[in-house]
TrEMBL record:
This protein's UniProt keywords: Lyase, NAD
Cofactor(s) listed: NAD(+)
Catalysed transformations (reactions): dTDP-alpha-D-glucose = dTDP-4-dehydro-6-deoxy-alpha-D-glucose + H2O
Enzyme Commission designation: 4.2.1.46
GO molecular function: dTDP-glucose 4,6-dehydratase activity
Occurrences of domain NAD(P)-binding (ranges): 5-317
Signal peptide bounds: none
Native source organism of the sequence: Orenia marismortui
Database matches in InterPro entries: dTDP_Gluc_deHydtase, NAD(P)-bd_dom, NAD(P)-bd_dom_sf
Entry's family note: Belongs to the NAD(P)-dependent epimerase/dehydratase family. dTDP-glucose dehydratase subfamily.
Gene Ontology process terms (BP): nucleotide-sugar metabolic process
Protein name, as recorded: dTDP-glucose 4,6-dehydratase
Length: 346
């Protein structure tokens, strides 16, 4: 029985990962999932409601030293998967401080406690333990022409969000180099799928289009992102946990480059809505032009392959938002937070 601490598990990718693990493994004999989440505006217990009795949920901050120590001591953690982050670039442009507190100092706190609890005799680590940092292709900066980000590309983050994630990656690397802490870092491209907070492009545009509201595209909509279906991402994370070589970074991407305008038109077509809903708004400050991932390392070394084509993934995603209107209406109205803000104990 392996014990997993999943931080940020009430968010988009974390909650999908938990569901993926519960489908794949048996909680009575294979895995125990401890989920820690601060329940910031992006954390939503509705994402976990149907599986609450299969996990141990703890509300709290990754930067809280006492709490993390308690969790390590109580649950004998084998794997720590750090999804917890402030994740919205636009918010980081307005308020960078919070991004440093959670993404940098919070990660450093997790590393520090992992280092203490996983030691066997002061110098060595328990076999099988691992710290997995969920990072992003945004740490590499922007591609202006041809080419792809490989794991060897120099880090050149452009937004405060990307800079905070790059700093965290550097700390994870440093804890490995300095203290031998067993680690992996994964850097994925833009994810899409169920349970994504409707501030991000795909869920925002799907939900706006359903309501015949405008779809505000930055600049001319020419920026290119490389889209990865969240289910494929979850499978890759599990693979890296089980088979990733100690200390290595793995890029995860599905070779699905699309301009924001293309994505918007696909959504409108799937919903049978008119292109006239598109409006062009002034570009984001320092907007990265293109991200594109070279995922050949994880494919060659760990035999990873994507299961979903973009056409299948986007259809399933749009259908999920149509089938789960209650979920996103509760997010839009703020209802999802009111239901647990008053609770003292979770
Ligand atoms: P999200 O914003 O949906 O979820 C983040 C979760 O972390 C939320 O549940 C939030 O409550 C929690 N959280 C925030 N601060 C916390 C703190 N101090 N302590 C404990 N919990 C805290 O984000 P996501 O899209 O699921 O992203 C998960 C991870 O993947 C992030 O680290 C992000 O940088 C990375 N990532 C995301 C994408 C993407 O396309 N979504 C792409 C690349 C990398």
């Amino acid at each position: 029985m392996k014990s997993y601490l999943i931080t940020g598990g009430a968010g988009f990718i974390g909650s999908n990962f938990i569901k993926y693990m519960l489908e794949k493994y048996n909680t009575r004999k294979d895995i125990k999932l401890v989920v820690l989440d601060k329940l910031s505006y992006a954390g939503n217990l509705d994402n976990l409601i149907d599986i609450m009795n299969e996990i141990k949920f703890i509300k709290g901050d990754i930067a809280n030293r006492e709490l993390i120590e308690y969790i390590f001591a109580e649950y004998n953690i084998d794997y720590l998967i750090n999804f917890a982050a402030e994740s919205h670039v636009d918010k980081s442009i307005k308020d960078p401080q919070l991004f440093i507190e959670t993404n940098v100092l919070g990660t450093q706190n997790l590393l520090d406690i992992s280092k203490e609890f996983w030691k066997v005799d002061g110098s060595d680590y328990r076999a099988g333990v691992k710290f997995l940092q969920i990072s992003t292709d945004e740490v590499y900066g922007s591609l202006e022409g041809e080419g792809y980000f490989s794991e060897k590309t120099a880090l050149a983050p452009n937004s405060p969000y990307a800079a905070s994630k790059a700093s965290a990656d550097m700390l994870v690397r440093a804890y490995h180099q300095t203290y031998n802490l067993p680690i992996n870092i994964t850097r994925c491209s833009n994810n899409y799928g169920p349970y994504q907070f409707p501030e991000k492009l795909i869920p925002l545009f799907v939900t706006n289009a359903v309501d015949d509201k405008e779809l505000p595209i930055y600049g001319e909509g020419k920026n290119i992102r490389d889209w990865l279906y969240v289910r494929d991402h979850c499978q890759a994370i599990d693979l890296v946990l089980q088979q990733g070589k100690n200390g290595e970074v793995y890029n995860i991407g599905a070779n699905n480059e699309r301009t924001n305008l293309e994505i918007t038109k696909i959504i409108l077509q799937l919903l049978d809505k008119s292109d006239s809903l598109i409006t062009y708004v002034s570009d984001r400050l320092g907007h990265d032009y293109r991200y594109a991932i070279d995922a050949s390392k994880i494919k060659n070394d760990l035999d990873w392959e994507v299961e979903y084509s973009f056409e299948t993934g986007i259809k399933e995603t749009v259908q999920w938002y149509l089938d789960n209107e209650d979920w996103w209406r509760r997010v839009q109205s703020g209802e999802y937070q009111r239901s647990y803000q008053s609770e003292k104990k979770l």
